[in-house]
Amino acid sequence: MSKMLSNIALRNLLQKTSQIVASSCNKFSSNITAEAYLSPQSFNDGLHGVPGHNIDTPHVPVMVNEVLSMLDIHPGKTILDLTFGAGGHSRRILESCGDVNVIGLDRDPVAFSYAQKMQENFGQRFTPLLGRFSEVPRLFQQHGISSVDGILLDLGCSSMQFDDASRGFSISRDGPLDMRMDGTRFPDQPTAADVLQHIEEHHLAKILKYYGEEKQAKKLARAIIEARYMFKRLKTTSELAYLVESVLDTEKRLDKLARPTHVATKTFQAIRIFVNNEINELNQIMEIAHKVLNPGGKLVVLSFHSLEDRVVKRHLVGIDMDEPASKSMSQKYRNAFNWHNPDNVGEIFNKNWSVVNKHVLTPEFNEVESNPRSRSAKLRCAIKNQNNI
Ligand SMILES: C[S@@+](CC[C@H](N)C(=O)[O-])C[C@H]1O[C@@H](n2cnc3c(N)ncnc32)[C@H](O)[C@@H]1O
User: Which Pfam families does the record match to this protein (predicted)?
Assistant: First the structure.
């Protein structure tokens, strides 16, 4: 990729990212900064060095029983699996009911090849689609699909992506600093190495802080920029991992199961989220999901870190991006003495979603033990309201 192309693509990505960080986290009130709204709650989606993770299994589906029971699978229904991965959830949905159909989408060409294989087993009951969430309207039009009866989103990376060193997601397996979930589908899309080569220091610090919840974001950003002059270019995952290790305090970091994690886990996650524009994609698919789901249909979302969950929650409970996050619809209209104009009343009765589980569901202890990737999973489910089409 020429330096100029990479710069243009990077600038577009930065622009979109700052928009979404602003709209998903920062609009509690116009004069308060984004930092004030992002809680210090840590997340860790990496599998690096996680004991119990089996590289022979492409990807173990998370909370599969809960997903199946939430989705209400019935004969003749069509379920859209927006994050096909290795097809673990799709397969279980197809096997759970002889007459259900599944559409399996993924942006990753490797996952798409798995999906094409699955079609050999399930024939017309399964439709594989290659594309990003934001491409769903175009793909539906191309394939003559108008609506679906249930939708599943299982966010983040698959084990297949983490385990393949050549994809550049892994701290423990050395490979090129790539991290593009789309592989080479979009040759102009900046890789992680391109981002680190061209990004400005203050932008990098924000990415590390917001997407990685890295407490030492500024110090790390400074070191990465300085490394450009020393190494010229950070090219591999181990170069980045060593750099982070050498810069950050060597205090032991623990995951949610209190097991040691690599000090660069948050850095890798932040850069991956940025490279793949993950939060913006999520924000878009929450809108699109509401458009393509039939009234009464269910949306099930598995998220793995607090920023993702916050975007999902805001859509499901109907918090306007310009509203303070603490004000849900019910809080806003709790005071019976308030006068409500017709617009207010319309707003109350025109809610997009009815939330099924008020509090997130989390995996059982046994599942976390046998599949450590499930440890930070949060499941939310909502029904598309009948009166809102
Ligand atoms: C956690 S994995 C899903 C695993 C899957 N449920 C299974 O059981 O094998 C998430 C998948 O979503 C895909 N993905 C993430 N963001 C996406 C997006 N914006 N558009 C399409 N696919 C996306 C990733 O490529 C990855 O394969």
Answer: Methyltransf_5
